[in-house]
Automatic annotation (TrEMBL):
Protein name: Beta-phosphoglucomutase
GO BP annotations, alphabetical order: carbohydrate metabolic process
Binding residues for substrate: 8-10, 24, 43-48, 51, 75, 113-117, 144
UniProt family annotation: Belongs to the HAD-like hydrolase superfamily. CbbY/CbbZ/Gph/YieH family.
Pfam family, one: Hydrolase
Active site location: 8 (proton donor/acceptor), 10 (proton donor/acceptor)
Reactions the enzyme catalyzes: beta-D-glucose 1-phosphate = beta-D-glucose 6-phosphate
Taxon lineage: Bacteria, Pseudomonadati, Bacteroidota, Cytophagia, Cytophagales
Record-listed Mg(2+) binding positions: 8, 10, 168-169
Needed cofactors: Mg(2+)
Cofactor note: Binds 2 magnesium ions per subunit.
Name of the top EC class for this enzyme: isomerase
GO MF entry, a single one: beta-phosphoglucomutase activity
Amino acid sequence: QIKAFLFDLDGVIVDTAIYHYQAWKRLANELGFDISEEFNERLKGVSRTESLDLILAHGGLTLPDEKKAELAAQKNEWYLELVSRMNSDDILPGVATFFSQVRKAGLQTALGSVSKNAPLILERIGMTQAFDAIIDGTKISKGKPDPEVFTKGADELEVNYNECVVFEDAVAGVEAGKRAGMFVVGLGSADVLIQADLVASSLESLTVAEVLAKLPN
Ligand code: BG6
Ligand code: MG
């Protein structure tokens, strides 16, 4: 019996994944190298500090912690500039319809994002009230692919892990959901999100009834 749907934010509810990518790319470029879209798949769902570590390793750089803190802060400043103009028009197609179906089905909702900026983004797009529980980067100690962000969401909703469905666009996020013992819907390409139980291109191409019909009995 499914009781709750847990949603990632970046790339699922809003297309902030592109802004994270642009800000990291700008940082890499300033450091003298580049990151591709393909490399960026590895950064999705990964925390700010771990993303920076992956990027520096990619560019063959080793830097002291102080410098790394400075670079992470710089990236966040650029990211905040990019998201500062966001509003409800930036909610991805299909999200509003899908959420009204979720409510009609009597399911609970939680946000499961490792982003420390998640509450700010939810405010900007007017979706704070759409979630019964909000787990963001300030509430967890381990980023995806660790399952913590989703198990905490289930705990806050007081539902069992096998009563949850996770919606994710990131490889690390799909793994986190699977490790939490949840049914995972991947949003994106089936070639990339190979661990997902079900893949759709976005919430626009999916109904709640379709998801519930795919669940194991
Ligand atoms: C995730 C994004 O939601 O949040 C990652 O997919 C990002 O790309 C991570 O690095 C951390 O976000 P923030 O806003 O705390 O830097
Ligand atoms: Mg995401």
